[in-house]
Specification:
alpha/beta, 7-stranded mixed beta sheet
Length: 417
């Protein structure tokens, strides 16, 4: 354990010297291994007695407050700070954890997201200590100093978007399922192999599930995850058009031209309609011509997106997108963990969903590159409207990170596991 001495101007008046550890570090046995780069940086700064460096790291990273679930549900619009008393220190302390050392949720305890700057603005009067990662081999007790924390927040650099929990799954089948959600999680600045214990914080995660997914209950979470794993959340016509092209690839050994693709898609639609709908008894709202026009327009959009993908390195050479199932599977990978954060799911069922996402991805694709192209096309068809706006450029930037950074799961998790 470390304690940090009083910052200059701190009114608490402890006997330790400014910036010096108040006690010797107690080495772990066996040697402690940090769970991520954040905890490593905090550990190194503490060993050097570099408290400015320590605060800079702390101000740049996500922090999580232990919280009562019952209280969080009763106050959905805010977070109540709940100090506690540690018998080793005079006065009250407030506990926070960095992401890699958040304990697994249990009982009524959940975790709320915050930042050091947030604590500086809302520090409760009478609380003397900020307890960072209490109960772990690197717990550190810091005298309350909101001014110093605000200064640290102003100079704190942005964290890398790609983060890895070194203590988490990194090379097995579960890691593969987690890596299916990497394009989303890396874009959000969350570790790609985050197990979902804290996510974006309990209250924020529940609000996001309600806003973006209309999920408020466990039953709704289960149903949505299952639909994603079956590929039923994307517009069916996207997959229909791509499957028509895949059939032509198998037939002629190469992708068809636009005219042949459109002609074949129209023929398939006509044949399917003849089987399912009696022409003399079609409902008034049935419009086959409109459906054909929709598919032919979609084929043009797909071809234009693929041309842009090749220019930007998402597709190599004359490659093409096989399927957009990745868009559903990537979201399933994330939703499995978001349900755990929101306490709508238990760890075993979240892990089962991750394993199923990985299995489905391996059936549909032959590599991370193919998976990525399918995901990005699905996202573009869902959000972008051929504007090549932020929905595209943000995802492209994450794709470049995932294909070049040595920490990337797409470079470390084998496709076939």
């Amino acid at each position: 354990m470390w304690t940090q001495g009083d910052a200059p101007g701190d009114p608490q008046g402890e006997e330790t010297q400014p910036g010096a550890p108040g006690s010797e570090q107690q080495p772990a046995d066996p040697p402690w291994e940090p769970p991520s780069a954040v905890e490593r940086s905090l550990y190194d700064a503490g060993m050097r007695e570099d408290w400015n460096g320590y605060f800079t790291v702390l101000a740049a990273t996500d922090l999580f407050l232990p919280h009562s679930r019952e209280l969080a549900d009763a106050l959905p619009g805010g977070v109540r700070l709940t100090p506690y008393r540690d018998e080793r220190f005079p006065g009250l302390s407030l506990a926070v954890f960095t992401r890699g050392l958040v304990p697994q949720p249990a009982g009524d305890r959940v975790f709320q997201w915050c930042e050091l700057s947030t604590l500086a603005r809302n520090w409760p009067g009478g609380v003397r200590w900020l307890a960072v990662n209490p109960g772990t081999p690197v717990e550190t007790f810091l005298p309350a100093d909101a001014r110093r924390w605000r200064r640290a927040a102003k100079r704190a650099p942005a964290e890398p978007r790609l983060k890895t929990l070194w203590s988490g799954h990194r090379h097995d089948a579960l890691a593969h399922g987690m890596a299916c959600g990497a394009l989303i999680l890396v874009n959000h600045g969350v570790p790609w192999n985050d197990p979902g214990w804290c996510g974006g914080g309990y209250t924020e995660q529940r609000a996001n599930l309600r806003r973006w997914w209309e999920i408020t209950t466990r039953e709704e979470w289960v149903a949505t995850v299952q639909r994603l794993l079956r590929g039923e959340m994307s517009t069916p016509v996207w997959e229909f058009a791509l499957r028509v092209r895949q059939a032509l690839v198998r037939e002629q050994g190469r992708p068809p031209g636009a005219a042949r693709w459109r002609e074949t898609a129209e023929r398939v639609l006509l044949a399917r309609t003849a089987e399912l709908v009696d022409a003399t008894r079609r409902p008034p709202e049935f419009d086959l011509d409109a459906d054909i026009a929709l598919v032919q327009d979609l084929i043009g959009r797909i071809l234009r997106y693929e041309a842009r993908f090749r220019a930007d390195g998402l597709l190599l050479g004359d490659d093409w997108v096989r399927s957009v199932q990745a868009w559903d599977l990537g979201r399933a990978s994330c939703l499995a963990r978001w349900g755990l954060t929101a306490r709508l799911a238990e760890l075993p069922e979240a892990e089962e969903a991750l394993l199923r996402a990985g299995e489905a991805a391996r059936r549909a694709y032959g590599s991370w590159g193919e998976f990525a192209a399918g995901f990005v096309l699905g996202r573009c068809l869902h959000f972008d409207g051929e504007e090549f706006g932020a929905s595209y450029t943000d995802t492209l930037a994450v794709h470049r990170t995932l294909t070049t950074d040595p920490e990337s799961p797409w470079l470390s998790v084998p496709w076939q596991v």
